[in-house]
Amino acid sequence: MTTETTITGTEKRTALYDQHAALGASFTDFGGWQMPLKYGSELAEHRAVRETAGLFDLSHMGEVFVSGSDAGAFLDYALVGKLSAVAVGKAKYSLICAEDGGIIDDLIVYRVAEEDYLVVPNAGNAATVAAELEARRGQFGGEAVSLRDASAATSLIAVQGPNAQEIVLQLFPAEHAEAVTGLKYYAAVELEAQLEAGSIPVLLARTGYTGEDGFELFVDNQDASGLWAAIGAAGEEHDLIPCGLAARDSLRLEAGMPLYGNELSRMSNPYAAGLGAVVALSKEGDFVGRAALTALKEAGAGTSAGCRLVGLKGTGRRSARGHYPVLKGGQLVGEITSGQPSPTLGYPVAMAYVEVEHSENGTTLDVDLRGRTETFEVVALPFYKRQK
Question: Is 216 annotated as contributing to ligand binding?
Answer without folding.
Answer: yes
